[in-house]
Design brief:
eight-stranded mixed sheet, 38% helix
Length: 271
């Protein structure tokens, strides 16, 4: 895997993992909060045998720029995907998205269908009617006054465990992988809360708009997700005509960490 920094038209510098042969079909992998492009690290080696892999850090995340003067809303994140496609000279590419990246990816699929070959959506929130556990958790996490508390490694590990079905996988190495970009700079600490500060109503497309997606779509979901339960996957499956739904047993929100081989098989079968 090559680590590269890409400059977008809006002058943001985006850290990106790149793997595979540039002559193979391009596949863009977009992570969510509070992770980085390293969320795909277990999957990229196998996928890169068939696809040209481009896995960026979202703005505000990982090693990408962390602007403090913007709202990380749906327009901005959808625009990021479009600008990333442009910067990498991707006229058309398949897109795999997760969590916050999933919200952006669904919006991209609504507004820029001509740029997509295929779409894979994983454990995200396509709707603004979040249930109480998610709403309360995000409410606390986005309060900047609490950021030092949540970025304590012990507390951060407990929060991270909520996203895993098998919590034994939340090793010190995994905790460090997730937390380091947030704590290694003042910009990272500010971005921790700012990147999720936008209300959910401003982070989703309408169900009617989702129904206009005609890109071949796979909904791939960890069945044990405590934040984005599997019923959301079923609802999204109904809202996107012709979509395919695959549930992953024994996996929570971070299914890339828990079941990378199973996910790769589902991706290969679909793509």
């Amino acid at each position: 895997m090559e680590s590269r920094f890409i400059r977008l038209k809006n002058n943001l510098t985006i850290h990106t993992l790149i793997a595979g042969n540039p002559t193979d079909p391009p596949l863009v992998l977009v992570h969510g909060w509070p992770s980085s492009c390293l969320l795909w690290r277990k999957m990229i080696p196998a996928l890169s045998k068939k696809f040209y892999i481009l896995a960026p850090d979202l703005p505000g995340h990982g090693q990408s720029d962390k602007p403090a003067d913007i709202a990380y809303d749906l327009d901005f994140l959808r625009g990021f995907i479009r600008q990333f496609y442009d910067a990498m000279n991707l006229e058309k590419a398949s897109l795999v998205v997760h969590d916050l990246g999933g919200m952006a990816g669904l919006s991209f699929a609504v507004r820029h269908k001509d740029r997509l070959e295929r779409l894979v959506v994983m454990n995200t929130s396509p709707y603004s009617d979040w249930h109480y556990l998610l709403s309360f958790s995000i409410f606390l996490l986005k309060q900047s006054v609490f950021t030092p508390f949540f970025l304590n490694k012990t507390i951060f590990k407990q929060v991270l465990c909520t996203g895993f079905y098998d919590t034994s996988l939340v090793s010190e190495e995994v905790v460090n992988l997730f937390i380091t970009p947030w704590i290694n700079s003042p910009e990272g600490k500010k971005a921790f809360s700012k990147t999720i500060a936008v209300p959910p109503i401003h982070m989703v497309e309408s169900p009617h708009s989702l129904g206009t997606i005609d890109t071949p779509s796979l909904i791939l979901w960890g069945k044990k997700d405590q934040f984005f339960p599997f019923k959301l996957a079923r609802r999204l499956h109904q809202d996107i005509p012709g979509s395919r739904l695959v549930g992953i047993d024994g996996a929570g929100h971070f299914l890339q960490e828990e079941k990378p081989e199973r996910i790769n098989k589902a991706l290969m079968d679909f793509l």
